[in-house]
């Protein structure tokens, strides 16, 4: 690990900040940490985003989503033996699936942030610029550790994960793990609070610098870190409420709210490029048709019926489909069910049925759009960039092996703020709490459900499941683990739907549900965390593997 951390201090990506599109066009840059000018710091700040590039497919393409395949929301999607090992809690430290890249990538971000925190105050820079640069570094140091701490650290046998700060001497980097992951969460919360003190409000950021962190994003991530800490100490729910209140109390141009265009497609329309920085936005990782996170292209129909090379991973379970109440508009905006339609690369696709597809030369042909998903359904939540016939090279990469696109990979949004605060109120003040009812009814209103929340733990859990399904950082798996529900939930069979196209009636026929598996064994003493990748142990003496791996 020491070798990784020291090397990462010298690894940067450089871009200009002259516009949003330029901000996304990265080129390789290597430099020493003997910075002198604002341009040097601009490049160092941009280096904090290196894990979003095409070179980091294993971090913001699939990455920790392999861990989310453990949840009852998602399956692996296609034949991938090492991912199946993860899903069945049989992962080894040498597992080669690209989730292994995340540990090293996040410690590299941590190291880059440390360099900025340590060196920028020593330079002769404009004070306001220096403050913002340091605030950005604190933000990314907190984000990097929040990205991995919940998956590798606990408050039991294993403890936390290494804490490397700007004040940590090289000889101290290889040290025993903290006694508890609460030490990590305390550091993460402190980093985000410091970031919020130094960062501007979103309204104070120039449009050509959208995508940089701001106060509300820092408060929001501090709330999430406290939410994860609360599984070990309920007092952290007070911090959840405090941080959520800071976001909710913003006013004027910084007021955050649920996006609602007063149509039946409100939740579907939330997931469009035009809402990348809308009222619900708190923090996203931006992409372009040239470079950026690939996550949105990892799912959907494998091969995209020859229209676009989607990869077919991460498919929804029937249990997730059934979790939505009747009339919930979020269900069809999230999951594509056999017989339903979607606009894809200029074609009206009937999923599992006969469709008229457009070819590259503008002609058309008939084809039964088969279902490649191992659950008989697929996700459609993030497919808006692929709607139009001319999307390739304009909204999405023209190369299906890349799949970067213009829809931001949202890591946290205002709906999560409402849900986190509602959870904290219910767990601290009891079910039926009036304020929690109001918060959950706001979620229900946008979903076009009756505003009749009872603010029970069961309802809160299901609203988190339905609202945040398939999003990159809010994790259903982590929720089940921290609520103590994982063992019971995972013991139940995962289910899928079977269907076929009936040529005689020209309809998609639902054959019925069947078991995808017979349930899985989750051991709370071992599987509450995953094995630390074997690469992390190179050059270390004190780093210890998680128990049972």
Principal-axes shape call: globular
Give the rounded overall mean pLDDT: 92
Helix content: 25-40%
Separation, N- and C-terminal Cα atoms: 18 Å
Find the structural class using helix and strand composition.
alpha+beta
Number of strands: 14
- In DSSP terms (H or I, runs of 4 or more residues), the helix count works out at 19
The unreliable regions are 1-31
**How large is the radius of gyration?**
23 Å
**What share of the residues does DSSP label as strand, in percent?**
5-15%
The strands making up the biggest β-sheet line up spatially as: 1-2
Any overview of this molecule?
With 549 residues, the chain is of the alpha+beta class. Helices cover 36% and strands 11% of the residues. It is built from 19 helices and 14 strands. It has helices spanning 2-8, 20-24, 38-47, 57-60, 65-68, 81-87, 100-119, 127-152, 181-198, 215-229, 236-248, 266-270, 318-323, 329-334, 414-429, 434-446, 457-468, 476-482, 486-490; strands at residues 11-14, 27-30, 74-75, 281-285, 315-316, 335-336, 341-344, 347-350, 354-358, 364-368, 378-379, 409-413, 495-502, 507-515. The strands form 7 sheets. The protein has a two-stranded antiparallel ribbon with strand order 1-2. The chain has a two-stranded antiparallel sheet with strand order 3-5. Strands 4-12 form a two-stranded antiparallel ribbon. A hairpin with a 4-residue loop joins strand 13 and strand 14 (507-515). Helix 1 (2-8) crosses helix 7 (100-119). The protein is globular. It starts with a helix and ends in a 34-residue tail after the last strand. Residues 1-31 have low confidence and may be disordered.
């Amino acid at each position: 690990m020491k070798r990784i951390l020291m090397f990462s201090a010298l690894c940067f990506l450089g871009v200009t900040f002259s516009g949003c599109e330029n901000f996304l066009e990265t080129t390789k840059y290597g430099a020493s940490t003997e910075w002198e000018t604002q341009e040097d710091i601009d490049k160092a700040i941009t280096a904090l985003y290196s894990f979003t590039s095409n070179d980091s497919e294993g971090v913001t393409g699939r990455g920790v989503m392999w861990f989310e395949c453990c949840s009852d929301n998602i399956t692996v999607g296609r034949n991938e033996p090492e991912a199946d090992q993860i899903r069945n809690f049989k992962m080894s430290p040498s597992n080669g699936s690209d989730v292994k890249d995340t540990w090293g990538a996040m410690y590299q971000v941590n190291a880059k942030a440390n360099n900025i925190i340590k060196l920028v105050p020593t330079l002769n820079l404009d004070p306001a610029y220096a403050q913002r640069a340091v605030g950005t570094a604190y933000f990314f140091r907190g984000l990097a550790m929040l990205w991995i701490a919940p998956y590798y650290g606990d408050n039991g046998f294993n403890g936390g994960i290494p804490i490397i700060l700007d004040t940590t001497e090289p000889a101290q980097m290889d040290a025993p793990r903290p006694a508890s992951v609460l030490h990590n969460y305390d550091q993460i919360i402190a980093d985000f609070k410091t970031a919020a003190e130094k960062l501007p409000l979103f309204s104070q950021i120039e449009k050509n610098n959208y995508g940089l962190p701001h106060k509300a994003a820092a408060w929001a991530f501090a709330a999430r870190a406290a939410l994860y800490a609360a599984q070990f100490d309920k007092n952290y729910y007070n911090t959840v409420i405090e941080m959520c209140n800071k976001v909710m109390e913003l006013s004027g141009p910084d007021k955050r709210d649920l996006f609602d265009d007063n149509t039946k497609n409100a939740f579907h329309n939330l997931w469009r490029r035009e809402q990348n920085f809308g009222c619900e936005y708190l923090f996203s990782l931006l992409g372009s048709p040239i470079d950026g996170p690939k996550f949105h292209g990892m799912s959907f129909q494998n091969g995209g019926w020859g229209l676009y090379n989607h990869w077919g991973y991460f498919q929804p379970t029937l249990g997730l489909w059934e979790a939505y109440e009747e009339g919930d508009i979020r269900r069809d905006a999230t999951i594509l069910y056999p017989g339903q339609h979607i606009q894809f690369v200029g074609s009206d696709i009937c999923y599992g049925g006969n469709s008229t597809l457009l070819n590259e030369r503008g002609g058309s042909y008939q084809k039964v759009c088969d279902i490649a998903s191992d659950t008989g359904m697929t996700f459609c939540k993030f497919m808006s960039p692929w709607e139009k016939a001319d999307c390739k090279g304009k909204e999405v990469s023209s190369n299906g092996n890349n799949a970067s696109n213009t829809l931001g990979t949202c890591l946290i949004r205002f709906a999560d703020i409402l849900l986190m605060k509602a959870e904290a109120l219910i767990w601290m003040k009891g079910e039926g709490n009036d304020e929690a009812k109001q918060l959950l009814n706001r979620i229900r209103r946008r979903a076009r459900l009756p505003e009749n929340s009872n603010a029970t733990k069961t309802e809160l859990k299901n609203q988190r499941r339905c609202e945040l399904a398939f999003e990159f950082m809010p994790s259903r798996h982590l929720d089940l683990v921290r609520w103590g529900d994982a063992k019971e939930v995972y013991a139940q069979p995962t289910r899928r739907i079977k269907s076929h196209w009936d040529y005689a009636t020209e309809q998609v026929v639902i054959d019925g549900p069947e078991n995808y598996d017979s349930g899985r064994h989750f051991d709370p003493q071992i599987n509450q965390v995953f094995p630390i990748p074997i690469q992390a142990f190179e050059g270390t003496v004190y780093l210890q593997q998680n128990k049972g791996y």
